[in-house]
Design goal:
Layout: H1 3-10, E1 16-20, E2 40-44, H2 52-61, E3 64-70, H3 75-78, E4 89-91, E5 97-99, H4 101-111, H5 118-136
């Protein structure tokens, strides 16, 4: 199998889109911890364990957001504009640019009321840690 051909298949040509989640009828769960919802999320046009959790949380939130997919041919031009030379990053309503996938995912979850409370929160954090460990192996 040709890795370049596989990459071309999963790298979507979409560069930017404004999305209303297909779960919008849920109405969003209400924010937790006073966290705002990112107004824009930028990641590679790839399906990876780094970007997908945040993308899923954005969809499940039911809230409007802008998604930007960066194709590999555009990455060299985009890289110097990122806060840490990596993707993903999220642009917040107050202008803050948040990087690091875990921080972004938990911010989205908190902004949409998906963090859980008490024991549910603790178990979700444990499962997240286990998942991160699996991704390292």
């Amino acid at each position: 199998s040709n890795p370049g051909a596989i990459l071309a298949q999963v790298a979507a040509p979409v560069e930017s889109l404004t999305a209303m989640s297909c779960f919008a009828w849920l109405g969003g769960g209400g924010g937790q911890l006073g966290l705002p919802m990112p107004k824009k999320f930028t990641y590679f046009a790839l399906k990876t364990p780094v970007g997908l959790p945040s993308q899923f949380a954005l969809e499940v939130s039911g809230l409007k957001y802008e998604g930007r997919s960066v194709t590999m041919d555009k990455w060299p031009a985009v890289k110097p504009t990122t806060p840490n030379g990596q993707l993903p990053f999220a642009e917040m309503p107050d202008g803050l640019v948040l990087c690091e996938s875990g921080a972004i995912g938990r911010t989205i979850a908190g902004a949409s009321g998906l963090l859980g409370e008490g024991k549910d929160y603790m178990v979700s954090e444990m499962l997240l840690g286990i998942t991160n460990d699996f991704n390292k192996k």
